[in-house]
Amino acid sequence: MEHTARKYSQSKALWAITRASFKAIFAHPSALIFSILFPVIFVMIFGAFGNGGGVSYRIALAEAADTNDFFYKGLLQIPGVKIVSYPDSASLKKDLIKGRLTAILRITKTTDSTEKPHYTVGIRSTTASSNTIYSFIPALDLVKLQLEKALNDAYVNYVTIEEPVIEKVRKYRQIDFILPGQLGFSILFSTLFGIAFTFFNLREQLVLKRFYASPVKKIHILLGIGMSRLFFQVLSVLVLIGVGYFFMDFTLQNGLLTFLEIMLMTLLMLFLLMGVGLIFSSVVKSDTSIPLLINLFGFPQMMLSGTFFPVEVFPAWLQEICRALPLTQYNDAVRKISFEGLSILECWKEIGILGIWMLIIYAITVKVIKWE
Question: What is the CA 191 to chain-centroid distance, rounded?
Fold first, then answer.
């Protein structure tokens, strides 16, 4: 009797590797602690913070102001006032909507026949800044009284403060900034540590060599082990978004569609990080070197990518470096999708930069990856 050879099933091999790797993750409780529990705790702690501290007023001027002008100097005397400028109207509007800007002032100055100045002050703000705008207006009245007293002992109305125009917008909560940063923080370190140590140990134990000698295609070996980590990280992202949405009012502007688009951005970032983990596992000679490389790659991004505070707090030259980092692009895209309601296609700039990073990373991966 002739026996027909059974064709080797690559799909079954891929599924078997993925399932075994996924089970192996849950064999280590530390994976659950560092990937899910710690990020959830961070979200609840940082998300519970208000704007905190003393009252701070970030004020933008509609037109360039004379810094030697009496009214401008009086404005600076208000405790907590900081005059800020923006490179374009889009950036200004973004901060105004998110409550990062207390108000926009339009100051019109004229002089009377005695050459004394008269000011008309227009105020524009939003409900997102309600925690500061209503205490700033009385402070502005104090500047008015001080100026009028200095100009004339008899009462003359030198300053007219118009009725504030306060636009109604969605409330921007602290969690709307914190949660996307914690998503990025979680997947960055968990994926890098998981992929790098997993592939290094499999190579050192000659498991990869045995896989390589089997009929399983190399790409399926990589995908099988890598996808198990991706599935696990997707699970942690689900938990974080669930906690933020149901317990802390995290904004999902378009509901389920927003959630799905965040997951797509997360998958893109996970594939990028998987390549970085493969590089680290291939170039080191001992597992003690892996944490060093991961920290060198991860900690600058954790600090400079808007994870815990906006990149705008840095000097302009450093902001340019921040915006080139992959984690910055992920954080920015998730915030735009979740709060601003943009579609994932409108985040083409962020996706493009992540795509460039991915091409570079996987080009290096192909060159350095080792099977034994």
Answer: 17
Closest CA to 196 of 66, 85, 292: 292
Q: Round to the nearest angstrom and report the end-to-end CA distance of the chain.
A: 41
Domains in the chain (CATH in brackets) are 10-48+173-368 (no CATH), 57-97+99-167 (3.40.1710.10)
What is the structure's pLDDT at 52? 46
User: Considering only CA atoms, which of 370, 192, 194 is closest in space to residue 272?
Assistant: 192
CB within 8 A of 189, min separation 6: which ones?
34, 294, 298, 302
**Residue 80 zone, left/alpha/beta (φ > 0; ψ -120 to 50; rest):** left
pLDDT at 218: 62
What's the CA gap between 244 and 312, in Å, rounded? 24
For residues 275 and 358, the answer to whether their CB atoms sit within 8 Å is yes
Higher-scoring residue by pLDDT: 14, 279: 279
* pTM to 2 decimal places: 0.71
SS3 67: coil
> Which candidate, 269, 18, 307, places its Cα nearest to that of 185?
307
For the record, the structure tokens of 168 come out as 């109604």
User: CB-side exposure of 232: number of CA atoms within 13 Å?
Assistant: 33
* pLDDT (average), residues 320-328: 92
Q: What is the 3-state secondary structure (H, E, C) of 126-177?
A: EHHHHHHHHHHHHHHHHHHHHHHHHHCCCCCCCEEECCCEEECCCCCCHHHH
The first and second tokens of residue 223, run together, are 């995908």
> Which token pair is 356?
């460039």
Contacts 24+ apart (CB under 8 A), 255-260: 258/337, 258/338, 258/341
Q: Using one digit for the tens of pLDDT, what is the confidence trace for 339-369?
A: 888 899 999 999 999 999 999 999 998 888 7
CA dist 295 to 27, 180, 192, 202, 289, Å? 25, 20, 10, 22, 10
Q: Residue 28 above 60 pLDDT?
A: no
